[in-house]
Amino acid sequence: MDQWIQNTLEQFGVMGVAFLMLIENIFPPIPSEVVMPWAGYSVSQGDHSLLAVVAAGSIGSFLGALLWYGVGLWIGKDRLSRWVDHHGAWLTISPKDIDRVDQWFDSWGGWAVLICRLIPGLRTLISLPAGFSNMSFLPFAIYTAIGTVAWTALLASLGWWLGNNYADLTGPLGWVSTAVVVGLFVWWLFRLLSQKRWSKNAANAR
């Protein structure tokens, strides 16, 4: 995948940066930790300006975040709660969990969006609950834009600074992203097994 990303960036330049960052927010396995450092490396080689690659990456990432926010709005809390009530067992969530997320976003939505936009693996996920919790569009857009620009500028600047050694950055950041995804999976598996154990104990107690 890394080679495909580099070929896309070499062929399409800053438009390729915007496209890949858009796709990264729709299909998270395409990592911004590879896209933006490579774009920063191209700046060090005189191919593009730092402002151009940061702007392109931020626009693509912002549009991807808006897409998932729109999906969350379209689904809505009530529809999602009904679906979870019937099918949420294997996800280890319940309608009460949806209510808690909704209340949490009422209090901390903006900060949650901002911080999660800076965390690999959670950057995409945060837009969906922001949508179904009916977080107001303007705060969502502002916090998303701030977090997005900060993340893309950081990665591009590091790639630019490292120059030919930019690959030294992608490895550690890739591990961070993988660790977050694995951690979420382990958390879900733990909840699933605990839920099944509780159900079994409840059935035996009858």
From TrEMBL:
The chain crosses the membrane at residues 12-30, 50-75, 140-161, 173-190. It is a multi-pass membrane protein. Residues 30-159 form the VTT domain. The keyword Zinc-finger does not apply. Signal peptide: none annotated. One of its GO terms (cellular component) is plasma membrane. It is found in: Cell membrane. InterPro entries: DedA_domain, VTT_dom. It holds the Pfam family VTT_dom. Keywords: Cell membrane, Membrane, Transmembrane, Transmembrane helix. This is VTT domain-containing protein. It comes from Neorhodopirellula pilleata.
